[in-house]
Structure formats: structure tokens, C-alpha cells
Amino acid sequence: MLLKKIYFSAVCLLPIHIAFAQLPQDSRRAGGIAVIPITAEVTQIFYEQSPVLISQEGVQRYAVFGIPMSAPLGTLTLKTNHKPIEIEVKPYQYAEQHLSVKNQDYVNPKQEQLDRYAVEAKEQNDIYRSFSQSTWTQLPSFIRPTAGKFSNSFGRKRFFNQEERAPHSGLDIPAPIGQKVIAPADGIIIQTGNYFFNGNTVLIDHGQGLISMFCHLSKIEVTKGQHITQGELLGLVGNTGRATGAHLHWGMSLNNARVDPQLFIK
Fold first, then answer.
1. Which of 80, 164, 180, 189 can bridge 226 by disulfide, Cβ–Cβ 3.0-4.6 Å?
2. Alpha-carbon dihedral sign for residues 186, 209, 201, 32
3. How far is it, in rounded angstroms, from Cα 73 to Cα 99?
4. Which of 30, 62, 89 is the last residue before a domain boundary?
5. Helices and strands, number each (H, E), in the chain
6. What is the pTM of this model?
7. How far is CA 64 from the centre of its chain?
């Protein structure tokens, strides 16, 4: 009888494991992701006018919600066409990072540099707020965009030459100049360019408000509007823009919230 129970449990667990294969990790903190099972009645979900991604995993549908870095602790409410969804944002302690920058323009930019940054920031924020219909129903899996050790730098409170700046909104991967950077998942190149702080940059639209960003490249190998598949070359690691050394800055934005890219990697 015991053997029958063990066998039955193993068979039941297998489909559950497959259903979660493509989903990011659930981490309900500022800068994290909430993976929420939803019923068939729920067809639209919004947070502060931003649509929330919905993925079909086997027979179950999920809302995949990016929690903003600015989200306060406690209950956060998502609006739907059915019943509101409430999630609990939990405490999470991010580290501090003190960096020495030789070029003072990157610490206290001149007015013309600030003007340039304002234009670039608006361009990028417009992309983050965009929501394109996906060609997929099941959220695609993600792979590492380049080789190297993750620095766990996401969310760190940063100090440049002892002056406090905004928390780090991406993940840094130290790597030599010229190392290949590849697409972590399928998508469309929504923008490329050279930005004041980010240097040579590529942005990919993966669908339903999921955007990835790759900064400080030494070379860009793709063009705006290009369809890209997982593993295709995006560019080469560099140290352009505000960088204290050669590395890839990998950012992820979900429903206009910057979230920890490590949550997409199994």
C-alpha cells in the first residue's frame, strides 16, 4: 500500500514541475516578481495603468508581475476585469556599493550633459511603458546573455565618489572587452544607441511589457526592428558610458518596473 502511495505522488508531481519550467522565480520584494495563478475569468490585469503579463503554463494561467523598486512594504493591489488581486511585498535588504569614478562628468554632469540625459531617459522610459502583444502564450525561457560570474549588484544603493545615487537597476556581469553578448530569449530589437550613462546599448522587446537592456557594449551587432532569437549575437562586452571597468549591465523591465534579472535564470 505504501508503495502505491509513493508511486502516485511521483506521477502527480511531474506535471507540476513542467508547468513551472518557463516561469521566473517568485520573489515578492521591491525589485522582485510575483507569479500569481489566475482563473479563466481574469483576462486583463493592471497596476497603475500598466498592463501585467499573462502566461499560459500547461492548463494553468499565471500573472507575472514586476514589483517596482519603489513599492512600499505591505499589501499591493492589482486591478483586473474580475476581482482585485492582492500581494504582500516583503522586506529585503540590498547591499551598498561604493565606486570611484575618475571622470567627474559622470558624477556631476554639466548642464548640456543633463539635457542629453533627459532626452535619453524619456526615450528609454517610453520603451519601458510600452506593451506589445506577444506571439507566444507561454513565457519563453531565458539564458545567460554572456559568460561570467554574477555580481549580485541588482538593487544596491550606490555611491559614486561618496555621493549617493539611485539604486542599481540591473545586474553587472564582469567580462573582458570583446566577449560575446547574446540574446537571452526571443524578441524584437526595439532600440539601439549610445547613451550618456549606459554607453552602447541594445534593448529587446520580448512581448507583453517584458523588456531587456544590455549596456556598456564595445560594439553593437544588431539593428532596430530586427527579429532576434535566443542565442543570437547582440554585441560585444565593453566599458562605454559610466563604467568603472569592462562588464555587461543586464537590465530587465516588467510592466515598467525594473526587476532582478537573476529571477529569470533557473
1. 189
2. negative
3. 28
4. 89
5. 2, 20
6. 0.84
7. 12
